[in-house]
């Protein structure tokens, strides 16, 4: 008998969705999809090859050139986007169960994902209705105006952490802008993406606007990146994959948006509200199983409070409940896949010679019955981590954090900036001037001052250095998916 939760009506096979139809790969290729608590295959998925991507791009291109979607009035498109949001919310419970089952995310954290995804659709629906573009008059001589046009078929390539929500972050603005799309979801977690087809059909999105090709990055993802009829790629994933895609996009001079990896610092000054800083820095690296691009995975603490901080932080980390992702008491579930588990565990071992282990350091004890082979890692904390340590420099993307002391503001800034990444930074201090000065000097695309990682969909989202290229959010996303043609008229 199964000892772990399995969603009702779990599909045993996942297909592509091309031109309004569920289809298998033309050559019949498939791959196995594992659940992370037993690491056994629960389904097969169609493994897209170049021919399947060609078919999906052809369907999307046909819907772009001949279909109604790019030519519909913003208000009409917005009505469909609102209907999509409602259809997403209607799937809230099922989506949470699917995400938990497929990714190992704790169910209490998976529950918010549908609302966030729905909000992405409502937000971009509102934005396109309110959108206006500039007209510039040169008196007596010329009138110049902006003619905004959707670019065409958008290629969307997404990672396995909070997969459905991150897919919505690309689907909502691209579709709102009037583009048609081909989505290539992550191969570790294709389950929730299978919900999109039904959601879009129900909401009345015209056939061919949304297309989905499952499969490996090197096959399906690569074919999408190299396809000449796909003028832009929106990618979220590892920095090294981003570099490869960047090179491949260059061939066709494609537009690119890249949301990449991170090794974000959380800086805690001695004058900070220590209770709030400890709560938030625990949340920052142990929520979402630590599989969070903006995780505050390097905590820099001012020497005056360093020992107290380390002691209190480690004590709290030890109380985090690791276990069955479907149990509402669980705070850290199973990591997504055995390959990723091996990577995280290798850093846990490296950390033992690079820092002082103060919590975790391996598999947790007392794993749920039947889940002894699951990809579980105890929340792990290393203190006294030197800036040249690999666990200080490299993205681990799991429930592992390093703590490093500093003395002065200058030293804190130098340590914060001492990585190739620049996604997020978190600063804890009650000195307003210091907080703002630090925010302006730190090399990070996003900074939270005395704050959790909360999102405002209007503000820029993205990283600097190896963490990304381009910023999305608000009208920046619409700009990315549209051409702004300048039309000049002589008066
Ligand atoms: P990944 O780079 O391994 O894969 C991401 C996607 O790219 C997958 O769909 C994969 O199949 C595809 N892919 C792989 N090789 C490809 C190729 N040659 N051509 C085209 N597509 C290819 O990343 P991952 O392990 O799925 O995700 C974790 C990473 O994503 C972490 O580094 C994390 O920081 C990053 N991430 C960044 C953000 C952000 O907003 N900055 C958000 C979430 C995750």
From TrEMBL:
Pfam families: Aldedh
Entry superkingdom: Bacteria
All residue ranges annotated as the Aldehyde dehydrogenase domain in the record: 23-487
Keywords: NAD, Oxidoreductase
Residues forming the catalytic site: 259
InterPro entries linked: Ald_DH/histidinol_DH (IPR016161), Ald_DH_C (IPR016163), Ald_DH_CS_CYS (IPR016160), Ald_DH_CS_GLU (IPR029510), Ald_DH_N (IPR016162), Aldehyde_DH_dom (IPR015590), DH_HpaE (IPR011985)
Transmembrane segments: none
Family in the record: Belongs to the aldehyde dehydrogenase family.
Protein name stated in the entry: 5-carboxymethyl-2-hydroxymuconate semialdehyde dehydrogenase
Chain's gene name: hpaE_1
């Amino acid at each position: 008998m199964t000892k772990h939760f399995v969603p009702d009506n779990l599909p045993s096979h996942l297909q592509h969705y091309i031109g309004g139809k569920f289809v298998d790969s033309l050559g019949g290729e498939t791959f196995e999809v594992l659940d992370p608590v037993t690491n056994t295959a629960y389904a097969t998925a169609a493994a897209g090859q170049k021919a399947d991507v060609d078919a999906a791009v052809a369907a999307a291109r046909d819907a772009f050139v001949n279909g109604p979607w790019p030519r519909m009035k913003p208000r009409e498109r917005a009505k469909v986007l609102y209907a999509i949001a409602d259809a997403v919310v209607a799937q809230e419970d099922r989506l949470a169960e699917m995400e938990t089952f497929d990714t190992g995310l704790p169910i209490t954290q998976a529950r918010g994902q549908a609302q966030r995804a729905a909000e992405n659709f409502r937000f971009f629906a509102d934005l396109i209705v309110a959108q206006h573009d500039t007209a510039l008059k040169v008196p007596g001589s010329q009138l110049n105006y902006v003619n905004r046009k959707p670019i065409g078929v958008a290629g969307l390539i997404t990672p396995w952490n909070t997969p459905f929500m991150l897919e919505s972050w690309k689907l909502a603005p691209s579709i709102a802008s009037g583009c048609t799309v081909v989505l290539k979801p992550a191969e570790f977690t294709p389950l929730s993406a299978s919900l999109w087809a039904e959601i879009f059909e129900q909401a009345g999105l015209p056939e061919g606007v949304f297309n989905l090709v499952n499969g490996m990055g090197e096959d399906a993802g690569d074919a999408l990146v190299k396809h000449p009829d796909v003028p832009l790629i929106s990618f979220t994933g590892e920095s090294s994959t981003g570099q490869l895609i960047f090179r491949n996009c260059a061939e066709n001079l494609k537009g690119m948006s890249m949301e990449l990896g991170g090794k974000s610092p959380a800086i805690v000054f001695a004058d900070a509200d220590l209770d709030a800083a400890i709560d938030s820095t625990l949340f920052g690296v142990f929520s979402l199983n630590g599989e969070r691009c903006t995780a505050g995975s390097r905590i820099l603490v001012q020497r005056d409070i360093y020992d107290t901080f380390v002691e209190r932080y480690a004590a709290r980390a030890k109380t985090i409940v690791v276990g069955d992702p479907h149990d509402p008491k669980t705070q850290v579930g199973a990591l997504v896949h055995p390959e990723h588990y091996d990577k995280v565990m290798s850093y846990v071992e490296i950390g033992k010679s690079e820092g002082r282990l103060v919590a975790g350091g391996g598999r947790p004890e007392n794993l749920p019955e039947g889940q002894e082979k699951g990809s579980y890692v105890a929340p792990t904390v290393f203190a006294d981590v030197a800036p040249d340590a690999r666990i200080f420099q490299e993205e681990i993307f799991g429930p592992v954090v390093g703590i490093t002391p500093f003395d002065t503001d200058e030293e804190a800034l130098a340590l914060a900036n001492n990585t190739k990444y620049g996604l997020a930074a978190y600063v804890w201090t009650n000195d307003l001037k210091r907080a703002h000065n630090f925010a302006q000097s730190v090399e990070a695309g996003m900074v939270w001052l005395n704050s959790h990682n909360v999102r405002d969909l209007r503000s820029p989202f993205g990283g600097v250095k190896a963490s990304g290229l381009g910023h999305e959010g608000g009208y920046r996303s619409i700009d990315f998916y549209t051409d702004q043609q300048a039309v000049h008229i002589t008066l």
